[in-house]
Amino acid sequence: MGNVTSKKQQVIRVEGIAEEKNKAFANALSQVQNHVLKESKDVTLRIEPIAVNVVKAEEETYVERFLFVLFPRVRHNFRVTLDVTADITMIEMDAVHFIEKKRTNPVGFSLPFFKNKIKKEAN
């Protein structure tokens, strides 16, 4: 068989939400692999990010209070939408030709528990 691997470039849009900026980016980037695997029926060998473009970055701020009036504190939520350009190396399953082998009906399958029980009853 020849070379069955192929390489393609794909732009993937992912979104991440967290309470810190770096965690929001990490959350978004961790979704790239799941998105690629869900989209393709081929076997993925490598996902290599080439470029990351920030489409939207938002910071949401709100005041949180204990018992609605005590101890006010400011909370932040960060939301990032990214376009990740990635090189994807994969094995094309359509290019792999499997050889079909047919077997006759097997003699049987072994069940260890019953096999020992049958031997004891035969003796």
From TrEMBL:
Pfam families: DUF4312
NCBIfam families: EF_0831
Protein name (record): Cytoplasmic protein
